Amino acid sequence: MTPLSRRQFLTATGAPFVRQPERRPNIVFLYSDDQGAWAAGRAGNRDAFTPHLDRLAREGAWFENSFVTTPVCSPSRASLMTGRYALEVGIPDYLSPEANANDGLDRRFPTWPAALRQAGYRTGLVGKWHLGYRPEFHPTNYGFEYFAGLPGGGSSPMNPRIEVEGVMKQYDGPAPDVFTDLGLDFIHRHRGEPFLLCLHYREPHASNAPDAGPKRTWLPVPEEDWARFRDLDPAIPNPRYDNLDVGEVKRMMREYLASVAALDRNAGRVVARLGELGLSRDTIVVFTSDNGMNMGHNGIWHKGNGRWILTNKRGDRPNLYDRSLRVPAILRFPARVKGGTVVRRTISNLDWFPTLLSLTGTPMPSGAVVRGRDLTPLVTGRRAAWDDVLYAEYDLRMEGNPRLRAWRTPEWKLVRDIGRSGFNELYQLSRDPDESRNLIHSTDPLTVKVRQRLDRQLTAKMKELGTGA
Fold first, then answer.
1. Of 185, 294, 360, 423, which is most buried by a Cβ count within 10 Å?
2. pTM score > 0.85 for this model?
3. Could you read off the pLDDT of 237-271 as tens digits, one per residue?
4. CB 153 within 8 A of CB 127
5. pLDDT digit string (tens) for 55-78?
6. Please, what are the domains in the chain?
């Protein structure tokens, strides 16, 4: 005899059938620190070891052209939270505890975690915040009811001292493992109700430990993550630079990729726990980073406040290179996003705000001005009008006074330095993706015409935002 379904049973007995409300999807937002888009196996990097991120990409949507709008930590994080450009919200550069002790993200700007909490989500942030040091800038004032992590920026990759619900605690073990343990605990506590977990790792940021020494290091990392890289002879960009210490750059690359591997292993722990709890189908998992990274690319290392790799003087090569702006991005949501989706349109960190509210059916906060665009059509196969323009900006405050603005299309990029004369840049990305040939002074008629068009478009955007033309 074939068993009756619940609907059939209720119909047969004359009982009314009441459709159970569909559970709102959970969100797990995995966020790395200083991870270039190139530092992942899915991006074609054979030296990188990221099996768990690669699996996420296979099971969801991989964004080939994902960028941030300011390529350094605090501004990028402010834009992620608000969906607005960093200069609009008053965070032009990274926040230093010495120089910016009284600065932070203005609470007048709505955030998407606050919108989700208002809609009934349990909300937690585990990891790095870096949007203000004073009590009024604490994450719990921006929609997070639970916080465990680093209110500021730097820390050691091992044995972190972190704040947990208002109390400073010393933990033993690798920082990514400690953060993941706390994140898994949050998921377990709220597994029966809709939740948002932002798990903001400090990896693969270089160590800020007092004993790290003058050389940049990403160690220590757990032996299980370091073992495959200890004897690796990694590929590095531009190995033929005159006077380049190739051995030193390869050491840095090995350590950096090992830090990425530690992050990846922990991302795998989170995904596995979701599966064990039966939450995979109805949980949106996002993975991305706060900015890209140069490890010898363009002759520099670091990000928007880069330094020439031969001199290693902080901030002596401010830039809006693609390698500083481009970040990995993955969205997995089995209930709505088909595995193996590849999105080639240009997206930015501003887009997560409207996207996550859209996917969860959460209303936009009243009066919110959000510059980002809803990515839902791109990941669900619906047609949508979409341009592939990126506007980027960076006003350095910690190292000099460059004020950079960029207008990027898939074929061209114009960079204007409104803080210094003689430092503008123009690249034809379709022929020069590494941005190695600056065409700003080209007299070729077609190039001049393109430069003038991009210049008009950039000026119009700057006037629209009031960010200086």
1. 294
2. yes
3. 989 888 899 999 999 999 999 999 999 999 999 99
4. no
5. 999 999 999 999 999 999 999 999
6. 26-380 (3.40.720.10), 401-465 (3.30.1120.10)
